[in-house]
Amino acid sequence: AQADETMNLCSKYLVAPFISDGQQYKALLNEDEIAEFHITFFGGSIYRLVSASGTTEGNVIFRIYDKERNLLFSNADYDNSIYWDFKFSSTIDCIIEAQLDNENLQSGYLLMLVGFKQN
After folding, report:
1. Which of 16, 34, 54, 55 reaches 20 to 30 Å from 99, CA-CA?
2. pTM of the entire predicted model
């Protein structure tokens, strides 16, 4: 049931003109555990990354790194925003780390969706 509620929450933010990449990035996390996902983003495309856990926004902290682990973005700098829109000028392999914000949630099912903007 929690998975369905979390999917509904994320899906509200992945609507036209954004289209899902068809993947669901999932993890069941406790306390300080961190999920890691590897994704290639293609240059010139506009992407939206959405991540949530539970039924309320702000429960997930996600960070995007390049393959050398240089931090490119953290939603923690933006009050744990549920989504981020971004564009890379060239194709890049990224590592996305996601964890629960322990101030809001101690354990739970984490879901991340990635979409790209239709032209």
Report:
1. 16
2. 0.91
